[in-house]
Here is the input.
Amino acid sequence: MSNSPLPVSPAPFGEPVSGPFPVVRLVGDLARPARLRVRDLGAWPQHRARVSFECATSGVQHHRFEGPLLHDVLYAAGPGFDPARRKDRLRFLIDVTGADGHRAVLSWGEIDPDFGRAPVLLATRIDDTPLDRTGPQLVLPQDRCGARHISGITAIRVDGHYTARA
Here is the structure.
């Protein structure tokens, strides 16, 4: 796996992105922070997942999602892993925020192909409906309950400065 540049031409981080389409800010310990729209996420290989969420309030919900893997998008942004530190990737956390304020935190180890290999998606489509106007969704197909499902993602922060507290 290479630390290749983003396969799109996102707006530089400090510049505003105009238009009616929501923007996801990739920030934190990244060599290439960026602002991406749903259409930009189409530059990565697209994956599909059929997901059933067992919700306490609304029962079982079945959906089909499509989009790139979260790992692929974040890896292209150049996370600040220290190659001199063995397994340095495992200290990184990923904080995903939605337009409604809902947040979920994942560990890099969950999505890394060398560790948990969870197929977490940044969905660009749900049930064949494009999400261009509402923003991508965080989808964890392995979760039984959809509590970590985030709609209308506005920001993804990669944090390698987390330190465990005793």
Summary: The CA atoms of residues 91 and 160 lie 6 Å apart. Helices lie at 38-41, 70-76, 108-111. DSSP finds three helices and eleven strands in the chain. The longest strand covers residues 47-55.
